[in-house]
From TrEMBL:
Reactions that this protein is recorded to catalyse: N(6)-acetyl-L-lysyl-[protein] + NAD(+) + H2O = 2''-O-acetyl-ADP-D-ribose + nicotinamide + L-lysyl-[protein]; N(6)-succinyl-L-lysyl-[protein] + NAD(+) + H2O = 2''-O-succinyl-ADP-D-ribose + nicotinamide + L-lysyl-[protein]
Keywords assigned by UniProt, alphabetized: Cytoplasm, NAD, Transferase
Gene3D superfamilies: SIR2/SIRT2 'Small Domain, TPP-binding domain
Protein name (database record): NAD-dependent protein deacylase
Coiled coil: none
Known EC number: 2.3.1.286
Amino acid sequence: MSFAPLDTSASLPLADTEIASLRQRLHNARHLLVLTGAGASAESGVPTFRDAQTGYWAQFSPEEMASEAGFLAHPQRVWDWYQYRRDLVRQVMPNAGHVALAQWQARHSGRMTLVTQNVDGLHQRAGSTPVLCLHGNLMDNRWLLPPKPCCDVRFTEGDAPPQCPGCGNYLRPAVVWFGEALPHAELQQAQDAAKACDLMLVIGTSGHVYPAAGLAHIAARGGAHVVVINPEPTALDSVADRCWRLPSAQILPALLA
Ligand code: APR
């Protein structure tokens, strides 16, 4: 495995003292909570969720492609969209930001809770463990309806999407769609970490999607120092103690080295 190279020659538009001050906070932190969103994978070449809807796919809204209603209305179209994204993710690699997070997590066992909204598996491929995946995993499937005894993934028919030959139940991507509940255990662990942390990094997320974005509010209410890392303004800037307008793969290696 190889990773996107880190350009250490690039000068960061941040004062050294600013980086040093956050590095000191990291050093002193009892517990660090990291929340990542689509932007954390942007420098790997994975388009953010909305940016991904280019070309043919631009004519459909995110809700049409990522909801049970959208799937039931057009199962093949939605399945094809996920197959397209799966093919794309297979061709990319974790970037220097993913790697820096994984290495810090390994060096500081038990001091970081890593929570992601991303379904691309790049944190795991960079070596992070554990990773709390709030929105599921792109590469996995599950049954659309609660499986009956006839539902066996080894014996499906059709492939776009595969169906149970007995009852017609569909396989669907094991991701959380609009309107669906997040996995209870992962969300609970993430919220517990938000209450307990004294430092939180909010990386590459627009901060518009809840309950994930709510983690930053919980952390701030509990007195944690909250840092947003994102080249663009976000909906969570108002709860942050500092906002670094930088791409994550550029700054995380310097911060977490
Ligand atoms: N580094 C850091 N942030 C970046 C970078 C980068 N290199 N490039 C883009 N960004 C930021 C954008 O500025 C934007 O704020 O990443 C964010 C991506 O926003 P969205 O595409 O809305 O992704 P996210 O906030 O993760 O969406 C959350 O909503 O669409 C659903 O289920 C989907 O998990 C997703 C959730």
